[in-house]
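Weekend entry, working from home. Most of the wet-lab plans are on hold until the incubator is repaired, so I used the time to fold the two sequences that have been sitting in the queue since the last round of cloning. Logging both here for the record. First:
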Amino acid sequence: MTHDSRTNPWFAVAIGLMGLIVGYGASAMISGPAAVDNNGGQVAVAPTNNDPTPPAPEPTTGDIPEVDVDNDHVRGPKNAKVTLVEYSDFECPFCKRHHPTIKKILETYPNDVNVVYRHYPLSFHPNAMPAAVASECAAELGGQDAFWKFHDAIFEGTSFDFTAIAKSIGLDEAKFTACTSSGKYDTKISDQQAGGDAGGVSGTPGNILVNNDTGDTQLISGAVPFESFKSAIDAMLNS
């Protein structure tokens, strides 16, 4: 005697399980990538460039360390009305995708906006902390110009060969190697990350807009589209 498998109760169970698996996979594809450190709760914030309604800016949850245009890594006019403080990770793929948006902001507001880069190395990115240290050593040996050349080489390239990058931008290899192995910048980097935490940053890229006239701040999390920054910046410039 033969049996129609469709009348078998285990057949229905198997079909149900297949549906759950397919549904879960589809949900994961739709929600987009996000890397999470289960130990520290840090995340690399997925871009929302395909999201027609990205999250709106929100007030920061606390005070971030005040911008010091003479000691922070600053790009753009020192007397800008608006500062974008970017807490970033040199190994974060979403920060890499965010890099062109930052450049576009500077190009769009050459007299009104500057950008400050601060370190927020995620613990599950093995190259993040060494890259942060290497960037500080580049600044020590070659000034702010060398820092930004190193910064761009990382975000616009594919290599984490820090010594090769240092040589390519004209830094002394022996001095650079001695600096990166000294540990002298570990505290500065961890302090910057703590400052980001205080302002509500929990992932990268974490962007905080500062109105330098009023002191008002807004947190914009993730690699959101340029238009989201533009609307927030325009509001600050017109306030």
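Second, folded right after the first finished:
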Amino acid sequence: MLTHHRRLVALSIVSTDLSVWSDVRAIATIYQRDQERFHLLLTEPKVAISREQSDPEPNSTDLLPTPRLLWLEISPYRITMTMQGDGKLSYRHHWERGVYGISRYWLQGSQIRQSSQIKLRNYTRSLHLDGYPIPEQLRLEYELWADQTQLGCYVLNLEIQND
């Protein structure tokens, strides 16, 4: 039987060599798939974009909320993170300790059939998952690569409050 828990989580992604930093705090639902596998689902707080970016009408300057859904598949051996939203960007990262994984970004155009995909590689330096029976902390260190060019080193940190 699939069990689930609602918990407060803090998710951050920080570059160790670039000025990139993102932090999300939200209530997430954690689904326990089996003893070592979990799915974590959260709605990222709304990001405001100007109407000029989403509407061809140049005089519109209202802010539009764009909620995004983050879904993490977590195990001690591999992590997959998917972001979907009603905005212009979606992505999926697949990390596995000591392996080159795939990071894909999908960019949506204003037309239904107008989209493009960016495919990058990531190398997982370390992956640590602590906590039992529900994970309490995930720390993932990885490098992002485009062909032979390194695009930075990153740390993904997930803290889950267990009651």
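Plan for Monday: verify the second prediction. The helical segments are 51-54.
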